[in-house]
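Sequence in, structure out. Go.
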Amino acid sequence: MKPKPITGHETIGVFSSSSPISATVPARYERGAAYLTARGFRVVNGSLYRERDFYRSGTILARADEFNRLLRDDSIDILMASIGGNNTNSILPYIDYDYLKTHPKIVVGYSDTTALLLAIYAKTGLVTFYGPALAASFGELPPLVDVTYSSFREVLSGEYTLPYTYPQPEGWTDEFLNWATQDRAKVCNPNEWITVRPGCASGRLIGGNLNTMEGFFGTPYMPAIENGDILLIEDTLKDAMTIERSFSLLKLAGVFDRVGGIILGKHEKFDDNGTGRKPYEILSEVLGDRDIPILADFDCCHTHPMLTLPIGCRICLNADEKTVSLLERPVL
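Output:
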């Protein structure tokens, strides 16, 4: 299933399936809402707006209820995460998947929202979008937020000729600035996607934040990774020893034996444990002699800007030319 394309005048319902960012850093949240409102969207806050239950926005059932209320509201076209967190997997048994089957909507977010995006796809077949969150992404300052928005708007509009090849942003950043007091644009680094292993492959895009996937891997809420799939994996604030373990989980589970290619996102604030090694070098070691195309440092992750990728759609990964292209429209 695919949702309807956007025109730029849709209503966005914002849910907080884990962290309570609208309560802890309201300035960031409101800036994100204002950015989207200025571009023609209507932003509706979820029922947990301004709520905080210590490390989360509410109880498990309250968080599930917030999402379901927005889902069942016929005036809302897009369900967008406010931010990620650590506990979205808790709400997966309580989501109204049956309603989504008959009322497909755009569902977008990243990081911990991976749990919800993949569960929806597994349970309904609805294409979901690994893309920006309201506070974390659209609360950033120009020019980076404008690049993030451009990808979001273009991919979800469906107004392009296929294959659609993602443009590589000129710069990127993982600079940390206090969200409550940020008053300047972040400093950018020159950008370059990296060919780790050459080759070209086409297949269904599946994946997201690897640390989050470990919280529901092997359950009915995780889509089966099939032969020829293109695997998207990214993470943030991890160290070398942790990602070696995470990559090795995929190898031990046979995932690397099945996928046709891998897109590895930039790793925000990676700690190499003094090794001098990059995440893609650790991935290559874990992968061993498996010969599949791998493109690293792709901009669909915790760094800025962020490109929007459709989970469940066919894409082409060309590691030789350092390109990722949509082979089908994710909206109908």
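Check: The chain has a mean pLDDT of 98. The two ends are 9 Å apart (CA to CA).
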